[in-house]
Amino acid sequence: MAKSTTLLLTTVALSFFCVALAFEPSPLQDFCVADSSSSARVNGLVCKNSASVQASDFSFSGLHLPGNTKNPLGSSVTPVTVAQVPGLNTLGLSLARIDYAPMGVITPHFHPRASEILTVLEGSLEVGFVGSNPENRLITKTLQKGDVFVFPVGLLHFQRNVGNGYAVSISGLSSQNPGIITATNAVFGSKPDISSDVLAKAFQVDKSIVDQLQAKF
């Protein structure tokens, strides 16, 4: 077995182990495969009839495939959440593969429902998160292949490829549906727009600059 494949499999196993104790309630049955066709509204997803459950409800193929990084950010995320694996419903964990072109970034964002543990599979990444007010302390580190970093739940964090080639990381998250709120999209791309008066005062800039930024998102 190739070294890269061995590392990937080991990382996946460790990621699942580390996020097994999640914030979400413990399941009260063997499994609760998500029934995406149900119109019922619950905190999570309704369980499919166990008689119709198949092995495919618990599997995902393709995590070994590179994502398309030909975009303005130079990055690509391949998620493995309850949307891709219905069998994750009620289990409180998920995964994501992230590919980075040279100088590619995952812009500042946070997960409202999950902590994240990231492992670098290839390349070098600058990573960091910002603590809450009033300190707003930046905790940052440059990671190499095989290094691990943790982003606490709800805190703004980012990743950037600082190597000369492509980089790959894999993350374990402590929710079947961690969610993602990207800072720039939330502030300048909300629907409807946040008032430019509010944003101009918040960022201490002219309203015309706010208008330009909102137009981009």
UniProtKB/TrEMBL annotation:
<dbReference type="InterPro" id="IPR019780">
    <property type="entry name" value="Germin_Mn-BS"/>
</dbReference>
<keyword id="KW-0052">Apoplast</keyword>
<feature type="domain" description="Cupin type-1">
    <location>
        <begin position="61"/>
        <end position="211"/>
    </location>
</feature>
<comment type="similarity">
    <text>Belongs to the germin family.</text>
</comment>
<dbReference type="Pfam" id="PF00190">
    <property type="entry name" value="Cupin_1"/>
</dbReference>
<dbReference type="InterPro" id="IPR001929">
    <property type="entry name" value="Germin"/>
</dbReference>
<keyword id="KW-0732">Signal</keyword>
<dbReference type="GO" id="GO:0030145">
    <property type="term" value="F:manganese ion binding"/>
</dbReference>
<keyword id="KW-1015">Disulfide bond</keyword>
<feature type="binding site">
    <location>
        <position position="111"/>
    </location>
    <ligand>
        <name>Mn(2+)</name>
    </ligand>
</feature>
<feature type="disulfide bond">
    <location>
        <begin position="32"/>
        <end position="47"/>
    </location>
</feature>
<feature type="binding site">
    <location>
        <position position="116"/>
    </location>
    <ligand>
        <name>oxalate</name>
    </ligand>
</feature>
<dbReference type="GO" id="GO:0048046">
    <property type="term" value="C:apoplast"/>
</dbReference>
<feature type="binding site">
    <location>
        <position position="109"/>
    </location>
    <ligand>
        <name>Mn(2+)</name>
    </ligand>
</feature>
<keyword id="KW-0464">Manganese</keyword>
<keyword id="KW-0479">Metal-binding</keyword>
<feature type="binding site">
    <location>
        <position position="111"/>
    </location>
    <ligand>
        <name>oxalate</name>
    </ligand>
</feature>
<feature type="binding site">
    <location>
        <position position="116"/>
    </location>
    <ligand>
        <name>Mn(2+)</name>
    </ligand>
</feature>
<keyword id="KW-0964">Secreted</keyword>
<dbReference type="InterPro" id="IPR006045">
    <property type="entry name" value="Cupin_1"/>
</dbReference>
<feature type="binding site">
    <location>
        <position position="157"/>
    </location>
    <ligand>
        <name>Mn(2+)</name>
    </ligand>
</feature>
<dbReference type="InterPro" id="IPR011051">
    <property type="entry name" value="RmlC_Cupin_sf"/>
</dbReference>
<protein>
    <recommendedName>
        <fullName>Germin-like protein</fullName>
    </recommendedName>
</protein>
<feature type="signal peptide">
    <location>
        <begin position="1"/>
        <end position="22"/>
    </location>
</feature>
<dbReference type="InterPro" id="IPR014710">
    <property type="entry name" value="RmlC-like_jellyroll"/>
</dbReference>
